[in-house]
Amino acid sequence: MDESYDVCVCGTGLKECILSGLLSVAGMKVLHLDRNGYYGGESASLSLSQLYEKFRPGSAPSETLGASRDWNVDLVPKFMMANGLLVKVLVHTEVTRYLEFKAVDGSYVLQKGKVHKVPANDMEALRSGLMGLFEKRRMRNYLLYVMDYNEKDPKTWKGMDLTRMPMSELYKYWGVAEDTIDFLGHAVALHSSDNYLAQPALATVKKTKLYYESVVRFEETNSPYIYPLYGLGELPQAFARLSAVYGGTYMLNQPGMTVAYDASGKACGVTSEGSTAACKFVVGDPSYFAPEKTRVSHKVVRAICFMNHPIPNTGDSHSVQIIMPQRQTGRKSDMYVFCCSYAHNVASKGKFIAFVCATVETDDPVAELRPALALLGPVEEQFFDISEVREPVNDPSADGCFITKGYDATTHFESTVVDCLELYKKITGKELDLTEKELTQQ
User: What is one GO biological process annotated to this record (predicted)?
Assistant: First the structure.
């Protein structure tokens, strides 16, 4: 391994693999290493035996769950917005040729103890129990304004400066009721808390447009989300292939690897099994760097639940998201339910996997999930994971360490890709050109 590279990438989580692929395409010589024997790191998809080895070492799964190889269980469950940043990166880099996608059946929201489908079109809005008739008209007028809004055309602004007007004032202008604000802000604009109401409205308008642009990207579906067959673990591997095509080198099973520093404290390589690969800088997840280079921003609790049925009240959906806005559960932030099934080649025939995710707010994280777990119905097996979400506090221009953030509780990838694009710009000094190309659904 005594060779020189432009960059060493530590960890094969999705963020690290995206950056590895993008930097390889940009012409850099990349060495990518991981302490594990599989791709994905913290964001891997595990077989049944790997899952039990992680959460219940020494115990074997029940035979009723079927073959281990039939399972691909995501550790960080998330859907992809059909017109979102991750899809744009996949299409731009042509990584889509390594993947197959399936549209998600629907997105739902909790309101007053009941699960409702988030309306994906006018017909669904008319039938929805989320709002009364007059409120539906007010919501429609608001959404027509949002979809017509163009930053470059003042005629579409209706005299409002959304770069300054708080989002709460824009809702007030259109007379949108509190319950409608709840699902528009959290299940459509995908804010994780109500903090956005005091912030300029433009960001929320853009998020709302993204949601409905994603809904119409595949006209035959009524959901803004897609999901890869065989689980999210396919994504890191696909970007790893992209890197390899452009000359990237991969080394798994490197348990003792450490970042090497020169006399000035700047990262200059990665050492493993007594040999060192020299490089100009190092990219990696927080676990590969000294603790003082990162801080814990918060913790996330996740439940993994195996079931033999779809989640009740979701129209027998094989894939679904349920967002539980903070106001509906008395929390400071939202809670998320994510479900996929054997239809996505992630579980044995007839089996469903439901995940519940939340930002930890108390000293009893598992108890925080009870309102969401109550929506699932009978559960065959259950696993809980509490993880720290770390973020960098170092100066990469001084120490040559470009550190990714951990994965939040949200069930979509927008924040994940924003982190990658910000690091890409810091490393290369350039914005990634995400010129749109066509994505064909499998």
Answer: small GTPase-mediated signal transduction
> What angle is formed at CA 102 by the lines to CA 96 and CA 108, rounded to 5 degrees?
125
In the numeric block, the tokens 């949200």 are attached to: 410
Whether 59 contacts 248, CB under 8 Å: no
Query: What does DSSP assign to residue 215?
Result: H
Q: Hey, what domains does the chain have and what are their CATH numbers?
A: 4-45+233-295+390-428 (3.50.50.60), 47-105+223-228+296-389 (3.30.519.10), 118-217 (1.10.405.10)
Report the chain (442 residues): mean pLDDT per 10 consecutive residues.
86 95 95 90 92 94 94 94 91 90 92 91 81 90 93 91 96 94 94 95 95 81 88 93 94 91 96 92 96 96 97 94 95 96 96 97 97 97 96 96 94 85 94 64 40
C-beta separation of 405 from 419 below 8 A: yes
Residues 6+ apart with CB under 8 A from 42: 11, 13, 75, 76, 285, 287, 387, 406, 407
Give me the pLDDT at residue 255, please.
Answer: 84
Q: Indicate the SS3 state at residue 322.
A: strand
Could you say which DSSP state residue 351 is in? Answer: -
Instruction: State the pLDDT at residue 441.
Output: 41
Nearest residue to 368 via CA among 409, 322, 329, 339 = 329
3-state secondary structure of 275: strand
d(CA 411, CA 190): 9
Long-range contacts of 169-172 (CB under 8 A, 24+ apart): 169/201, 170/201, 170/204, 170/205, 171/142, 171/197
160: phi then psi, degrees, rounded to nearest 5? -110, 135
